[in-house]
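Late entry, written up from scratch paper. The run itself happened at the end of the previous shift, but nothing got recorded in the book at the time, so transcribing now.
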Amino acid sequence: MFAIDDRLRGLPATRDQVVAVHQSINSPHLAVPGKRAGPAQAYIVGLRSGAGFSVYVYLHLGDSGDCAMYVPSRRNLGPEEYQQQENDALGFVESMGFMMDNMNFRGLTPEDQEEMLKALPVFQREPRAPSGEKGPSRPSKSVLLGRLLASF
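Output as recorded:
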């Protein structure tokens, strides 16, 4: 089960800590408790530490420049438990209306991995303030459509 942790605002991580990254290909309108309702983008991040694996769900509320971090009730999992928790996280965000895409983080070049760590809001200490220009963290509509069609 996942619960909001208001203390966490992002997951600054190193390339070696990141096991997986899933990003939503849509932005449903959400009402997150304690936050202004609006379109959101979801990220699921799997991290590895010396004690085991953990899965986090991050919702970026772009219009308000806010976020919500959902953490699991159990952390420091073994590989089998991690896989189950990642599946639970996917089901959790899909129940909110998100369609998720595996970003294949481990299959990217080290340079592309570093770029992803710099660009995605989930890896920042604080969510980005809203801006009028489109940032690198949001793929173009044609890329999102291509990912959606490729998933069939």
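The chain has one domain: 2-150.
(Scratch paper discarded after transcription.)
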